[in-house]
Amino acid sequence: MRKFTDLALNTAKNLGASYCDIRIINTEYENIKTRNGEIGSIDKSETMGYGIRVVIDGAWGFASSSLITKEGIENTTKKAVDTGKASALTIRNRVKLAPEPVYKDKWTTPYIIDPFKIELKDKLNLLYAADEILRKDKRIIIATGNLSFLREHQWFANTEGSFIEQILLRSGAGISATAIGDDVQIRSYPTSFGGQYMSMGYEMVESLKLLDNAERVRDEAIALTTADQCPPGKKDLILGTGQLGLQIHESVGHATELDRVLGMEANYAGTSFATIEKLNNFKYGANIVNLVADSTIPGGLATIGYDDDGVRAQRWHIVKNGILSGYSTSRELAHTIRENRSRGSNRADGYNNIPIIRITNLSLVPGDWTLDDLISDTEDGIYMDTNRSWSIDQRRLNFQFGTEIAWEIRNGKKGRMLRNANYQGITPEFWNSCDAICDEKHWQLIGVPNCGKGQPGQRAEMSHGCSPTRFKNITIGVGQKGNTSEQV
Fold it and tell me: How buried is residue 488: exposed, middle or buried, by Cβ count under 10 Å (0-12/13-18/19+)?
């Protein structure tokens, strides 16, 4: 691939570009779904192409193509240069890239079992076996299973001298059961995002033990159809990892993407309340709240060697001891918060999109509670887990979340199961109400495989590590009878 990357870089320089990078990407994808004992869909695809970015006259230009030939590379580079020249006519601020060392490296996701070498029939047989358990009771009207695998082989080069080859691999799996009774209810395992996703091989699928959990998923779905409604009021709230992961994602991850903070994403899913004058002085959460971005953590969906700016993966605080302490940044925007180096958060969806700032793996540092002790310490509360619905305003401030399942906690004991549970809050008030976090034995990464952002829209993947956590005096049961709180 080196001859093609050199061709693009030399062509761009000859056309007057002050900077150029090229990403050549080969993507393999496989997604298998079953529904009620039959194949729902099988999607297998492979794509290959490249995207070229240039800076010319102080502005970005970008073009992409799947034609990997000398003529294709030259023409696409010229299109990128022409786009940059047109953009330069309207720019207010010239592109300024933070410095980054030159790298010549190869990085590969660690894995044990290549999922693309597992026979299709074996994958289907696993899903069929789970489906059989889920539908042993006729009250289950829909049973689904999902296996998903993605491999991205990327070559990156820029005019500064870097040449980086990466092979990124991720696997995903999950099941769900929908039951009908007094109500229609769903239970998912391990999460409601189509399952758990991690940067691993097929060994991740095996570790989930789908068959061992199918009976519980079925029985909980059925039990939820006749469970009591979640009572409204102000209560202490314990969030399980399946819900807390999304809470972190929506109210902290997106709120601290620097392009949103600067107003560059105002036309799609909003901006952010966490503006740059708050950096290092705003109390985002309680003193025990530490949220760390980490693109090096094993298994994370955003765990990489380098981002699409060619910046090496790293770890840093977003919130430290409750104080807003950092953002997700790119080489272009790092200087706006007086940082000398990008945090390596610039990623694109495939070869045909320009990189934009994305949440990396973002995790809540564990505390020192056991879950049993946390429940015993709670007099009047609700334990909620597994996301079912979410809503958050454009500034990432006011939110409402619903969960698949909940349990009442009274006098330190976990009691009756509850259905249709939800809660609402305001981001800094909510995180400042955090008073207890479970320890590392309860901590796990929750994969988000479908984060959307940008226009045209781009999908990205990332993980959020957390353990069950308690928040004090939260509005519960929004919209339930007897509750007059406004919905988000």
Answer: middle
